[in-house]
UniProtKB/TrEMBL annotation:
Keywords: DNA-binding, Transcription, Transcription regulation. Pfam families: HTH_5. It comes from Geothrix limicola. Gene3D superfamilies: Winged helix-like DNA-binding domain superfamily/Winged helix DNA-binding domain. This is HTH arsR-type domain-containing protein. The lineage of its organism: Bacteria, Pseudomonadati, Acidobacteriota, Holophagae, Holophagales. Residues 1-95 form the HTH arsR-type domain. PROSITE patterns: HTH_ARSR_2. It comes from the Bacteria.
Length: 127
């Protein structure tokens, strides 16, 4: 195995090596969110959240799309991302309470932070 063949794995591990990105992945475990919702829950500027999402998207762990002027994100559905994500959840068990609070706050937002009438797209729940 050469260094070039390890680059994708190194990129994925680097993307996972930040607490904000791990919190984002945990938030998305319950389904898609608007970037503004993620920013609100994390208490970060949307531009900062977008930077973190760029790294996660590059590694294939998340996907994003526009809904009107809002950007929505979700965990990737590709088979290559599944083993990494499934291995990650048990490793994050120590932070279970904090992550549960994050998810509860995200569910309560219903995208009110970006539009008083809510985002135009319904949320999907992972299978």
């Amino acid at each position: 195995m050469t260094t070039d063949t390890l680059r994708p794995l190194v990129g994925t591990l680097k993307a996972l090596a930040h607490p904000v990105r791990l919190r984002i992945l945990a938030l998305l475990r319950d389904g898609e969110l608007c970037v503004c919702e993620v920013a609100e829950v994390l208490g970060l500027a949307p531009s900062t959240v977008s930077e973190h999402l760029t790294g996660l998207r590059r590694t294939g762990l998340v996907r994003e799309w526009k809904v009107g002027r809002w950007v929505h994100v979700a965990l990737a559905e590709e088979a290559a991302a599944r083993p990494v994500l499934e291995a990650l959840w048990p490793l994050m068990a120590a932070a279970r309470e904090e992550l549960a609070r994050d998810r509860a706050q995200a569910r309560a937002l219903r995208c009110e932070t970006c539009d008083p009438d809510g985002c135009p797209a319904p949320r999907s729940k992972p299978a």
